[in-house]
Structures are given as structure tokens and as C-alpha cells.
Amino acid sequence: MEKNILANPVRNPNIALPPSGKQWSIISNGVNDKGIALVVALMMLLILTLIGINAITTTTYETSISGNERVGTDAFYASEAGIQVNLNQLPNTNPISRTKVGEDSYYWSGSPQDRDSPRAVGFMGLYAVPGFDVSWEFKRYQVNATGESFRAAREIEVQVRMGPYTAGTQYNN
């Protein structure tokens, strides 16, 4: 009886199986699983490739967004320069033609449609201000300026009140 226990490896865990025999484990249940490492490695490689492609796509998209933001900001600052030039020439309401600001940035008075033939700064009339009697007047102007940078355009519109002036005079400054 003692001999049978030693000869049967299933009942005695101290005896190792020969390398050529089927090896039993909890995971494989007797199936030959020599190629599973290759399948797992290929699946991991596929997952890492998909993550890499997603990262490249996201980076390209974000770079495009940041470039568009920069161009739009340049156009805004160009239009702001046009507003400042218009404000400095008031009460003169002559238009400002297309003027170069930077490498590829321009401004002009008016809207983007007025690029080749800009319109003048508009005088909007007199403006009454509470606390001032009729012997004083304020003048209102509307100033439009457009900035362009690398085909991006931004338009700014400003309404300005100037005064007080003595009513009925031609004094403008």
C-alpha cells in the first residue's frame, strides 16, 4: 500500500512530473498554452499603437487650435491699432486706408467688406448729458476698424463721446 502512494504523483505532491508529460495547472486545465505570451504581447502592442495614434491626432488638433487662436489675436490687435489711430484723428472723420502693422497684419477703418474702399468714421450727432445745461454739448462718433492677419479678420466698433464744448461753436478739441 505504501508503494502505490509514492508511485502516484497526483496523490503525492512531493513527486515532480517528468518534463515530457502533460502539466496540469489551475489556469490551463491540461491545454498546451505555449503561444499565449505571443497573443498577449500582440494585444498589448495593438492597444499601445491605438493610444499612440490617438495622442498624435489630439496633438495635431490642439496645435491647429492654438495657431488659429494666435492668428485671431493678431487680427484683433491690428484692429485695435486702427481704433487708436481713428480716435487720435477725431474730430476728423476721414477714412484710414489699409495700413500694414506687422508681418502679415493690416488695419483699416470700416468693416471687412470695406477693405478696398473704406468708409469714414461716422459722426452720430450731439449728445445731451445730465447735469450740463443747454449751453454745453457733447459730440458722438462711431468708429469701426478691421484688423486682418493671415486671412483672419476681427472688427471692433467703438462709440465715442467728446466734450463738453460750448454750444453752437465749431470747437472740436
Give a short summary of the structure.
By secondary structure, this protein is of the alpha+beta class.
* Overall form: rod-shaped
Number of strands: 5
The ordered string of helix (H) and strand (E) elements is HHEEEEE
Number of helices: 2
> For the residues shown, what is the average pLDDT?
80
Helix content: 25-40%
- Going by helix content, strand content and strand pairing, the class is alpha+beta
Unreliable spans are none
Question: How much beta, percentage-wise?
Answer: 15-25%
* CA-CA gap between termini: 124 Å
Please outline the major beta sheet: 5 strands, antiparallel
Radius of gyration: 40 Å
Structure description:
With 173 residues, the chain is α+β, with helices and mostly antiparallel strands. It has a domain of 96 residues. The protein is 35% helix and 24% strand. The protein contains two helices and five strands; from the N terminus they run H-H-E-E-E-E-E. Strands 1, 2, 3, 4 and 5 form a five-stranded antiparallel sheet that branches. The longest helix has 54 residues. The radius of gyration is 40 Å and the shape is rod-shaped. It starts with a helix and ends in a 7-residue tail after the last strand. 14% of the residues are buried. The mean pLDDT is 80.
